[in-house]
Amino acid sequence: MTIATTSKVGKKTITVAVSGNPNSGKSTLINGIAGTRLQVGNWPGVTVDKKEALLEYGDKAIRLVDLPGTYSLSPYSQEEVIARDYLIREKPDVIIDVVDSTNLERNLYLAVQLLELDIPVVIALNMHDEAEKKGYKIDTKPVEEMLGARVVPTVATRNEGTRELLEAVAEIAEDPLKHRPRTLSYGDDIETAAATLETRIRKDYPAFAEQYPLRWLALKILEEDNLILGETGLRESLAGEALHHLKKAHSEDMESVMADARYALASGLTREVLKVPEIRKAELTEKIDKIVLNRFLAMPIFLASMWLVFKLAFDTSKPFVDWIDLVTTGPLKRWAEAIAAITHSPAWLSSLTTDGVIGGVGFVLAFVPVIFAMMFFITFLEGSGYMARAAFVMDRAMHKMGLHGKSFIPMLLGFGCNVPAIYATRTLENTKDKVLTSLVIPLMSCGARLPVYVLFVGAFFSTHAGTAIWSMYVLGIAIAVLMGVIFKKTLFKGESPIFIMELPPYRMPTAQSLLIHTWEKGRHFLIKAGTYIFAVSILVWFLLNLPWGVADKKDSLLGRGGQIVAPLLAPLGFGNWEAASSLITGVVAKEIVVGTMGEIYTKKAEEAQKEPPPPLSEDLREICFSFFTATKNAVVNVFSTFKIVSLAAEEDPEGGNLRSRIRAAFTPLSGYSFMVFVLLYTPCIVTAIAFRHEFGTWKWFGVACAYQTVLAWLVSFVIYQGGKLMGLGG
Ligand code: GDP
Ligand code: MG
C-alpha cells in the first residue's frame, strides 16, 4: 500500500481508481461527482480517454481517475491492459467498482479480479433504481462480508449515493489495512499451486514480491498470462509439480480453468445475495431479442437499422451543412472582402483570407454536423444495447471469411465518413484486427465521394443515376471484403479471437449520457482534424495561385503537377491535366475533386458580375433565418426519411455548365473509370490523421495509401480497357 501523498494545500490526497463494465454508469457517476472539475486527457501512448478530477473532501483531497470500461482484467484489449497496468503500477489507495445491479453476475466477474489486487474496493451498486423496479433485492451486508469490500447502492443518473460513496472512500483511507479485500478461493488444487508459487517467488524473486500483489502474480503465472510472463521473465514451470497436476486434472488450458473459477465465484456470490422475484414474466429484453436475434430476421433488421442510422445522420445534418456552406460562402466571404477593401489589403491577402481561410474553415465546419449527428445515432444504438446484438449477429458471417465479426460495425460507419469509422475500430479487442479493419475502411464509399458521383452520373448516366451510384457502394464493399481476406492471409495471419459478448439489457439512454458520449466521440475530430485540414486548405490555395499572377490555372503549381501526373492516368481513360490536378487535391478530401474541377473549368469572366453586398443587418437576418429553416428541414427530414430523395433536386444552376464541360472532357466509360478511381484511391487527409491518431504512427496510413493507389489504378484500368475491348466506347 502506498503512503498517501500530500497535496499543495497540505491535505492528504487519496487516489481513487474508478473501474467498471462498459455501460455500468461510470461516466454518469463521475460526471455527477466531479462536474466541471473533470479533466480529459489521453492515457500515455494511446488514444483512450483518461479522465481525472481532484476534489476537496473534508480534510482530505480525493483524486478520481476514470479507468477504461472493461469486463475483465485479462490482457486482451487495450482497455484492459491500461486499466490493469494502472492498478498494478500506480497502486491507487482505493478502487471504486461501478457495478450494474441489474446485471450482477457479469459485473461481479470483474469485481472478483479487482479484489485480487490487494487494494481496498468500494462497490457502487449502481442502477439501483432499475434493480428495484425489477423487484430485485440485493443484500449488501453479506456482499460486504464475503468480499471484504464496502458496498454502496447508487443511482448515478440522480446523483444518489455519491456522498456515501465518498464517505466510504475517506473512511477506508483512514485505515486501509482494516479494509483489505478478502481472498476468494479458487478451489483447493489451484490454491495449493498458487501458494507454492508465492513461496517460491518470495524466496527467489523478492523484488517481484514487492512490486506486484503477490497472490495476483502467482495466479497470473498459473494462467500463463503472456504479458506478465514477458514482463517479469518468470516461467510457469516455477509452479512445478502442482501446475503439472492441475493441467492434467483439468485437461483444459489454465486460462479457461481460471476464468471458469472466476465465473463460478461471481455466480455463486450472485446466488447468495440476489433475490429475484419468483415468477418473472419474460422481460422486455427477452421479448425483443426473440425477434432481433431470430435466425432469419436478425440480418435484415441489422442492415435496416444501420441504413437508418446512416440515413438519419445525413438527413439531419445535411440542412446544417448547407447552412454552414451558405454562411461561409455568402456573408462571411462578403464581410472579409469588405474588410479587405476598407483596410486596403493586397489582392493576394484578400484572396487568401476569402478563398483559402474562410473556404478552409467552412470546409472543416461542414464536416462537423455530419460527424456529430453520426456519433449521436451510434451512441444511441450503443446505449440502447442494440450495438452489442449487431456485433453478435455479424460475428458468425464474418468469421467464416476469417474476419473479425465486430469489424463490420466500423466498416458500415465508413459509408458516412471514414474518419469516425476508423475511430470506431476501438471496439475491437486486438491490434491486428483494428489495423486490418482500418486498412479496408477507406474502401467504403464515404459521403465525400458522393458529389463526384453526382457530377459524373448527372453528365453521363442520368437515366440510371440510382443504379450507377449504388454500383459504387457495392463495389466498395466487395473490394473491402476481398482485401480483408487477402490481408488476413498475408499481413495479419492468425486466428481472430472468438468474441464472446454478454448482451446487456435494452435500456433507453438518457439525454445526458447521449450528449456526454456524443461529445466525447466527436471532439477528437474537432480538435485534431480541424487544425490539420485548415492548414492543408491554405496550402491548396497556394498551389492553385502560385506563381502569383498566373493567367492560366494550367500554369499554376497544381496545374503543372497535374500535367506531370496525367500520362500515368492515360491508360485509365482520363489522362488530362484537369482530371489529374483534381485528383491531386482530392487527396486532401474527396469533395475537393469537384471543387477543383469547378475552379478549373469555370471561366474567369464570371467574376465580373458582382452585386453590391447587402447591408450587414440583412446578412445577420438571413443567417438566423436560414438557420431556422435548416432546423426545420432537419426535423422534416427525420419524418420523411423513408422517401427516396431524387438526385435531380440537387442540381445547381452552375452545375449544367460544369457538366457540359465534363461531357467534353470525358466519355461515359472514362467517366465511370474516373468515379471508380475516386472511390478507391488514397484515403483523405482527415482519415490520415485518424490513422495516425489511432495507431500513433504513419506506417499504416502509408500502407493504405500505397495499396489503394495501386488498387485504384488496376481496377480503373481493367474497367476502362475492358470496356473498350467490349466496344463500350473510348
Ligand atoms: P459507462 O459506459 O459506464 O460510462 O456508462 P454511462 O454513464 O454512459 O451509462 C450508461 C447508461 O446507463 C446511460 O444511459 C445512463 O444514463 C444510464 N445510467 C447510469 N447510471 C444509472 C442509474 O443509476 N440508473 C439508471 N436508471 N440509469 C443509469
Ligand atoms: Mg463511459
CA-CA gap between termini: 77 Å
Compute the gyration radius: what is it?
30 Å
CATH class of the domain at 4-179 reads Alpha Beta
User: Main beta sheet, described?
Assistant: 7 strands, mixed
The hetero compounds bound to this protein are: guanosine-5'-diphosphate, magnesium ion
Shape: globular
β-strand amount: 5-15%
Strand arrangement, major sheet: 2-3-4-1-5-6-8
CATH superfamily of the domain at 4-179: P-loop containing nucleotide triphosphate hydrolases
Number of DSSP strand runs: 9
**In the CATH classification, which architecture of the domain at 4-179 applies?**
3-Layer(aba) Sandwich
Helix content: 55-70%
CATH topology-level fold name of the domain at 4-179: Rossmann fold
> Can you give the mean pLDDT?
80
Low-pLDDT regions:
1-8, 603-609, 643-655
Layout: helices, strands, pairs:
Layout: E1 12-20, H1 26-34, E2 39-42, E3 49-57, E4 60-66, H2 78-90, E5 94-100, H3 104-115, E6 121-126, H4 128-133, E7 137-138, H5 140-147, E8 150-153, H6 162-174, H7 188-204, H8 206-211, H9 214-222, H10 226-232, H11 240-250, H12 254-273, E9 274-275, H13 284-292, H14 298-342, H15 347-384, H16 386-400, H17 408-413, H18 418-423, H19 431-440, H20 450-460, H21 465-489, H22 511-545, H23 557-569, H24 577-586, H25 591-601, H26 616-639, H27 655-665, H28 668-680, H29 685-695, H30 699-725
Parallel strand pairs: 1-4, 1-5, 5-6, 6-8
Antiparallel strand pairs: 2-3, 3-4, 7-9
Bound molecules: guanosine-5'-diphosphate and magnesium ion.
